Amino acid sequence: MQSVMIVVLGLAGMSFGWLVYSKFIAEKIYRLDPDFVTPAHELNDGVDFVPTNRFVLWGHHFTSIAGAAPIVGPAIAVYWGWVPAVLWVTFGTIFFAGVHDFGAIWASARNKGKSIGALSRDVIGARTRSLFMVVIFLLLLMVNAVFGVVIASLFISTTTSVFPAWSAIAVALVIGQLLRRNVSLAALSVGGVLALYTSVYIGSLLPIELPAELFGLAPSANWLIILFAYAAVASLLPVWMLLQPRDYINGLQLIIGLVLLYGAVFLTMPEITAPAFNDRLDAMSPSIVPLLFVTIACGAVSGFHGIVSSGTTSKQLDKEPDARFVGYLGAVGEGTLALITIVSVSGITLAATTEMWHEIYFAYGQAGAPTFVQGGAELLRQGWGIPISVTTTMLATMVVLFAATTMDTGVRLQRYIIQEWGEIYSVGALQDKRLSTAIAVGTCLFLAFGAGGASGSGGLVIWPLFGSTNQILAGLTLLVISVMLIKLGRPARYTLIPMMFVMTTSSWAAVLKLIEWYQAGNWVLVVIDFVVIITSVLVILEAASAISQYRRENPVSQAS
Prior knowledge:
With 560 residues, this protein is mostly helical. The protein has helices at residues 2-29, 39-42, 54-66, 69-77, 82-109, 116-123, 126-157, 162-180, 185-205, 219-236, 243-268, 288-295, 303-313, 322-346, 354-360, 369-384, 388-424, 433-452, 459-462, 466-487, 493-520, 523-553. The protein is built from 22 helices and no strands. Helix 7 packs across helix 18 (433-452). It is globular and about 65 Å long.
């Protein structure tokens, strides 16, 4: 019954966030205006700036921010016990992620669709923009390089996921063309989902694997090259052609997956075998505070969301009130995925006894996406009677498609950053889409093979930096939104309080890891971590100076 209690209380809290809290934020804080002309209309170019149906845009936003992180983070964080993981996911979604993602879309749309890095110049100062964009580029480099490794690994470990993962691209291309011809969205939704799940069934019967050695490289390396070649092409295509329909269908696929998973919980009512609070932690494992708050990022709050919100989502916003539906409800969707992940890896479907659970979670970081696939597939089998081969393929495909859509968006966002640098420093060549895309993909592959050798796993070298860097960026994004609200004369505490909490925990975690890596002599991580910490401190000081100057010049602030 504990599993049902977790689900009911968690979903009730997130429902409150969507129905009550987000409405308050929309009306009283961000003050959305249905008559405001969004950048999608003002700057419509048919490629990046495209007015988009809010349901389609929600699908793009949701699957781009989700990736594998709201599965991997919660799956690992249960190590400390399911109670702290559930509490952080629930309250993080309501008061942190929703406000953060929603706010980043609103702030960017109000400033011609500028990325959060470029926007920081207008809100805080020119020096802030340069600092901000360095952190953003590093984060995108980490995400793209590592998600490529995650997808390649799943293609190798679950060969039945290969066919449906690539079939989804063909389905998306067809839907993109039909949407431009005003074919009913409802009809396309039904047809797309049927095609996707048909491919999942075919995939469960048709495993596909690369030769043991091709062009002198292992399968993992060849998959990585194929994935980045695809991502380069995808990032150059108009968003309506592939990105939007692919993400929309993936979003529908996740909704169906979530309905099946949550339904299975109510049908089977699995017992929780994981401890509420784990009292058998390894002596070498990190402390729950502050590491819990950077281990679960996506699913509670994540700086990567701010990059997506201001990088691609804001450029496709049809009407300003859609920002609430897309941003806040996107965060709620991700929270529900994190919540069911916790149930899947905490219950009897993964480990029949608490002792078995402890064996699986012997050390921090030992679990991850495969643990979710294993526990979730068994939950679906018990709840719905679906063959385990099909449920395993379905969940593995879900993880692959999420990671792939994040990678698609991530490469496009890297291209935007490089183009913005070209504009800032008047380097015309960098403003070319093809060259900037080649540089984006080239840096990812350089990291993958330069640091990882023939395996292509080099992204894993700097991946330990992701947790604290990602959350520091979330804090900085909330800081930019807060300064913007202060300049508009509006209450900023609803973004400032989450900002202070996130910055405190993430900076604390970054300092702890800095000490650990210094003692271990891991100088690459020491240098990058130090740069991120110093950069965040400088941004905060610049913001404090901007706020102080504004208050001196405007002693009596009028609400805008």
